[in-house]
Design a protein that fits this description.
CATH architecture of the largest domain: 3-Layer(aba) Sandwich
Number of domains: 2
CATH topology of the largest domain: Rossmann fold
Strand order of the largest sheet: 7-6-5-8-9
Order of helices and strands: EHEHHEEHHEHEEHEHEHH
CATH class of the largest domain: Alpha Beta
Helix content: 25-40%
Number of strands: 9
Oligomer: single chain
Distance between the termini: 5 Å
Number of helices: 10
Radius of gyration: 20 Å
Length: 349
Amino acid sequence: MKKNNKIRIITYYYTNNYGALLQGFLLREYLREKFPKFDVNFYDYLPKKLIYHEFYKPLITIKPSKFIYNFNKFYKLNKWKKKNKIPPPKKKLLNSDINIFGSDEIWNFDNKYFGFDPKYFGSINQNAIKISYAPSIGMAKIDNIDKYKIDVIKKNLSEFKNISVRDYGTYEFIKSILNKKVPIVLDPVLLEKKIYLQDKISQTNNSIALVYGFTFSNEEIKKIKLFTKEKKLKIYSIGFFNKWADINLLNIDIDDFIFFFNTSKIIFTSMFHGVMLSYKFNKNFWFTYNEIRKNKLEYFINFLELNNRKISLEKDFDEELDYNKNFYKFEKWQKTSQNYILNSIESYL
């Protein structure tokens, strides 16, 4: 073992985005359980521009209601972070023995908030062993990146001991710059059944139709409203305001976020982690997506044959998802993902 026995996860770990917070938290807890003798935590770094976008910009508004909403949301999430010992970003970065890069869009070199950040490609803590677990480039296109950035990315990623990705677009990106094929692994949310969070009532609430997302078309909204009215379900929208929902719950923490996914009767989502959590809890779910999330979701949807869960005017929302159909296919993918991250770490201890 190395001297400090430290494993650090480099990701968007202190954000106010529910999915980003959850994927980082669950990866940390999974590794803590598997490597109890190690100090496993987050590498306490976030780009300054991302910090501004996440924590300061939302509070700059002339609308008192918007300020109060954002303030209350930040307060609840910060309280949750403190309870779960998630450290805020610091100016002084500490050394570690093994760095895990991922998950989320940390390799999006065209990030609209802070652009290209070499640190997420491995330019920090150069002496540490570097392993990636399920990062994504999101919608970024290699055609849109200049030669200097490509050279920096190629140099840094060539120093990684093991590389895995989360989607096919990122797989193609790594293949094009490193000329190597890498495994596509599951998002940390699906690494295992356990959720590592405070247990609440787990039975299904037959009166709730959950909505997580905001890019639903007028036709999709009309169909969802008609279905929920016929079934006497109340539409709960979490994380985003949808004026067509019966109840909007915007100021919730991660425990509440998980609670609603775990207990709702049916789920409608346009978010990547909305699909991940729906699948995790074996829910009857329906999804829609725009181009922003298509790249991230497409491989998962195609691999597990979930295209029939896409919202369409022809679909009957009563149609249940048969989780037994691809159970062994998913189980094999899950085992492969577990073996990848565990073997990658164990081989360098």
